[in-house]
């Protein structure tokens, strides 16, 4: 099947501001004498998106070895979730319709995806990949009708979308119908962020900024203040900020990957209609864990404002910022 491109744009709306600022002498919480923690940074990719890690530690060698281990872990998880790799678990599942022995990570994410699909009444559905493939192929033609694929083709693809037809029994994954396919772009980057964050936490790192497609911070800034996250518009201008401490953030918007010049046809599909969702302009979710923030942002973007509160309430401690099409906004708390 056609491979999905990186979900880069919508993931890069969140930025940590001044994360690399120099630490003041005698930062609260650290000894004045002896080795002082300093900033160490790593940049790379995670599931095709730009990725970075920032952590504070007094031992530069230990920091670099930690980055190497985390990069190796990201690579391992890409071999599970990447739609770009023909040898990944998700590619095998989409190609064969069955994954006889799925990894613990694949089962965990597919299980979580089904749970979010259930609580969102199908607004979040990992099996929308046939709709993505249809639109990608259709708009690759020249010329393509601005109205999008014919209704009969859209409906045929939509009939393949049903999270309830993914069987996760006996440590495997199986599709109930030929032609089904999944994408985990709306949750897997959050999961990878959480896996790396948990590993760093277990190794004793207390001040960490992760941007691995989604954002997660450990602790507060070393000077004691919250991490400040800048929310940017399509032009790159920071339009508002969020303060985070031991939290994660994710954003969802149809402007990220578009199939046509107008942006009417984009990558976030409403499984109930088979069309791209246009109820909201953007959704930003903050939650304790990146997996939850990632899935909630997509689910709320598709479901719309009326259903947002009920969906958000399924994750304690979550909050959301909904940007409407007219650019007015509303804030919600679980």
From TrEMBL:
One Gene Ontology term of the molecular function aspect: transferase activity
Reaction(s) catalysed (UniProt annotation): L-threonyl-[protein] + FAD = FMN-L-threonyl-[protein] + AMP + H(+)
What cofactor is this protein dependent on?
Mg(2+)
Residues spanning the membrane: 12-33
Q: Which InterPro entries match?
A: ApbE, ApbE-like_sf, TAT_signal
The record's top EC class is transferase
Which family is it part of?
Belongs to the ApbE family.
Listed name of the protein: FAD:protein FMN transferase
